[in-house]
Design a protein that fits this description.
Layout (H helix, E strand, L loop, with lengths): L2 H14 L4 H12 L3 H11 L2 H5 L2 H10 L6 E6 L5 H19 L3 E4 L9 H7 L13 E5 L7 E4 L5 H16 L4 H19 L3 E6 L6 E7 L2 E4 L7 H16 L6 H19 L3 H18 L3 H8 L3 H6 L6
Length: about 325
């Protein structure tokens, strides 16, 4: 549990039970360097028997958030400029988030954070990685230790979309996706929402193959191209081998991204072999969403892949 959240609980407890400032300091000190058993002993030293009976909810919360059977935990680092939106998100979606997360994901927040900038909150949480992204607002998620946490960029997302991002995390946890795979996929989910909200972008570019000028648009997160050309299977197979070699050498992509792109191209080849238009369109759709999730890293690779004429024709690869 982040100390900010525990401090808030201690403040509420001390105020409702007329405890002295010294008791508050003892509780907070006990929490920072302790385990559940020793914390219980220290609580007993500052509370009367009647008050100990009334701390059941506090004990439950501590036990819950120190439970190692809960696989993942997360917090949101907000922007102070969007504090009302963050507060509204917590208040509006708390019940749904509580039910959704169940025993899969613990979501930390503190009302003390309302109005604060995530940069200050981040500095106060000493366990977070020093190289954690400074792009806020973001969702910070970790598995075994907060020191291994990663950030999911929430910039440009509405509250409902943030809820959908968290929902996707739970979905990936349920199917036991490895942490690195899950975090990458969740980033892609967030990116798709950003692309959906992006104004229409038109671009026209000359591709160095026989397809001539290719025009396309990005609207509502969907890339639409104006050309559709059949490709020769032998040419596609030859270009696929070349593309796979180029992708494997592309340092801007993770191994996960490389494997995903190779699988998309391979599935397209199988669809061409079986002459299945439905599967061909599915491969093209997967490629479109891969482009959206890859961000700026895709640009140089598109330049390289445009030399693979049949792939460029099939996927309508352009150079935005």
């Amino acid at each position: 549990m982040p100390s900010l959240l525990f401090n808030s609980l201690v403040d509420e407890f001390c105020i409702s039970n007329n405890r002295y400032p010294d008791d508050r300091a003892k509780l907070i000190s006990a929490f920072r360097q302790t385990n559940p058993a020793s914390l219980a002993n220290k609580l007993a030293s500052v509370l009367s028997k009647s008050q100990l009976k009334r701390m059941k909810s506090l004990g439950y919360i501590y036990d819950r958030y120190s439970n190692q059977n809960i696989p993942y935990r997360c917090i949101i680092l907000p922007l102070a400029a969007n504090s009302e939106s963050y507060k509204s998100f917590i208040q509006k979606y708390w019940m749904d988030l509580n039910s959704l997360s169940a025993d899969y994901l613990d979501i930390f927040y503190s009302e003390n954070d309302f109005g604060q900038t995530g940069y200050d909150i981040k500095r106060k949480i000493q366990s977070l990685p020093k190289n954690l992204s400074n792009d806020l607002p973001c969702l910070v998620i970790w598995e075994h230790s907060m020191s291994d946490a990663v950030a999911i960029d929430l910039q440009g997302l509405e509250n409902e979309e943030i809820f959908r991002v968290i929902s996707s995390i739970v979905d990936f946890i349920k199917v036991k996706s490895p942490f690195n795979v899950m975090s990458e996929r969740v980033r892609n989910v967030a990116q798709k929402f950003r692309e959906k909200n992006r104004p229409i972008t038109n671009y026209i570019n000359q591709v160095e193959n026989n397809s001539g000028i290719v025009a396309g648009t990005i609207s509502g997160g969907i890339i639409t191209m104006n050309t559709h050309s059949a490709v020769d299977l032998n040419d596609f197979a030859k270009d696929l081998q070349e593309a796979m070699a180029l992708i494997k050498q592309y340092v801007a992509f993770s191994e996960l991204q490389k494997n995903e792109l190779i699988e998309i191209f391979s599935s397209a080849k199988r669809a061409i072999e079986s002459n299945s238009l439905g599967e061909q369109n599915q491969s093209k759709e997967r490629f479109k969403y891969f482009m959206l999730g890859a961000g700026n890293a895709i640009k140089d690779l598109l330049t390289v892949l445009s030399s693979c004429a049949s792939l460029a024709t099939f996927f309508n690869i352009t150079l935005p």
